[in-house]
Amino acid sequence: MVTVVTNSNASLLLQAAAAAAGSQQYPAGALYVVATPIGNLADLSLRAIHVLALADAVACEDTRHSAPLLRHLGLDKPLLAVHEHNERDAAQAVLARLARGERVAYVSDAGTPAVSDPGAVLVAAVQAAGLLAVPIPGASSAVAALSVAGDTRSAGFQFVGFLPTRAAERAAALQHLCAAPSAQVMFEAPHRIEALARDLSAAAPQRRVTLCRELTKQFETVATMPTADLPAWLAADANRLRGEFVLVLHAPEA
Q: How far is CA 228 from CA 112, 200, 245, in A?
């Protein structure tokens, strides 16, 4: 049974996180890149909770999104907005805090920062300043999708993220990806999933694809089929067009 954290037991959770951290050191003046759940709060690691509790400030993709997570943990921290539109400038405010010896955690809205999310520019700025960036691993929708794809032919994978939104550019990108010998992992938004399904079907109708929808959430769906069947499968149920999507295009047959 999953335990739901409330304000009354948040302190117990923080104590458990501190105990689990053991004797490992968390240096001051470092940026901690913290993975957060992709939909299920139970996936937040004790180590991530401990680091968020230790942090002097939390930089986040969207303060409105991350504030409820911190409240859920009973934490009250200064929040710094660091997103794709201000990341280069906002990095300077983070660097100033690190130079004062503060610990700063960075979280994106969901999953692992800098993986089709902001964070890479901030990490590069921290490293360029000779400071430490520490990964606090956890949920990743790309890796979760790969784990249930059952692609027995691929010895590796390429993470694509989001494909181009323009139809011609997306089709050209898919032609290139379909020629690769490895599995391809891509994200897609609900309003473009049907177009991507049609393009995949046209580019490689015999290849297998695993579609993951709403991973770790109540209406999680995982389905594997030939790409030629994907458009009809989506059209068969309007609910299949809702949510967030990760697709794994299986490696070609040898």
A: 31, 8, 18
- The H-or-E segment that residue 162 falls in is strand 157-162
Q: Which residues pair with 209 in a beta bridge?
A: 225, 249
What does the alpha-carbon distance between residue 141 and residue 227 come to, in Å, rounded to a whole number?
20
Q: State whether residue 135 is helix, strand or coil.
A: strand
- The arithmetic mean of pLDDT across residues 116-127, rounded, is 96
Among 159, 235, 228, CA closest to 198: 228
Delimit the domains of the chain by residue range: 10-136, 141-249
Please give the Cα distance from 193 to 152 (Å, whole number): 25
Is the pTM value of this prediction over 0.70? yes
Sheet with 30-34, side-by-side order of all strands: 79-81, 57-60, 104-107, 30-34, 132-136
Q: Is the pLDDT of residue 104 over 50?
A: yes
- Between strands 183-188 and 245-249, the pairing is antiparallel
The CATH superfamily holding the domain 10-136 is Tetrapyrrole methylase, N-terminal domain (3.40.1010.10)
Report yes or no: 224 and 210 within 8 Å, Cβ to Cβ: yes
Q: How far apart are CA 9 and CA 172, in angstroms?
A: 52
Confidence of residue 8 (pLDDT cuts 50, 70, 90): low
- Nearest residue to 59 via CA among 107, 123, 124: 107
Alpha-carbon distance of 188 to 213, in angstroms, equals: 10
CATH number, domain 141-249, options 3.30.950.10, 3.40.50.300, 1.20.120.1200, 3.10.20.320: 3.30.950.10
- Model confidence pLDDT, tens digit, residues 199-228: 999 999 999 999 999 999 999 999 999 999
Amino acid identity, residue 215?
Answer: L
